[in-house]
Amino acid sequence: MKSAAVFVLFAGLLILHVEGQASTSVRRCFCLGPAANAVRLQLVDKIEVYPVSASCENVEVIVTLKNGAGKKCLNPNSGFTQKYIKAALKKRSAA
């Protein structure tokens, strides 16, 4: 009886310890390799900007290309990307 009580106490403490552990931070960035500095504007269908988050410490700019040509990551620090984002925001606010 005494050993069963010790076992239940130990199991309870173990469960509390495991639940209290912080989850490991897994980096889940969309852009893993080097990013492009520019793309042809005629090929861009959509632009997505992902700010820094708990799962990725980088700002990510992803463009979806027309005709199912896939997605490309843009360098958020390049002049082309910054101008393109400003133009897209200006166009969006005008509409």
From TrEMBL:
InterPro entries: Chemokine_b/g/d, Chemokine_CXC, Chemokine_CXC_CS, Chemokine_IL8-like_dom, CXC_Chemokine_domain, Interleukin_8-like_sf. The lineage of its organism: Eukaryota, Metazoa, Chordata, Craniata, Vertebrata. It comes from Tachysurus vachellii. One of its GO terms (cellular component) is extracellular space. Belongs to the intercrine alpha (chemokine CxC) family. Residues 26-88 form the Chemokine interleukin-8-like domain. It comes from the Eukaryota. Pfam families: IL8 (PF00048). Ligand for cxcr3.2. Chemotactic for macrophages. GO terms for molecular function: chemoattractant activity; chemokine activity. This is C-X-C motif chemokine. SUPFAM superfamilies: Interleukin 8-like chemokines. GO terms for biological process: defense response; immune response. It is found in: Secreted. Keywords: Chemotaxis, Cytokine, Disulfide bond, Secreted, Signal. Residues 1-20 form the signal peptide. PROSITE patterns: SMALL_CYTOKINES_CXC. Its main location: secreted.
